[in-house]
Specification:
The protein is α+β, with helices and mostly antiparallel strands. It has one domain. The chain is elongated and about 40 Å long.
Length: 50
Amino acid sequence: MKKRMTLQGKAEAAMKKAVKEVIENHKKSGRPLAAWKDGKTVMISADKVK
């Protein structure tokens, strides 16, 4: 039996999908990805993104 997703679950799933798509696009284009580390913005090169 499939359980219905809550609104929070739907929002989380949509956010995860969006992040995955952004990472894939950056990998394909070779552009660095901006991220937070220790309270600061850092740029991660496309070849180091998992």
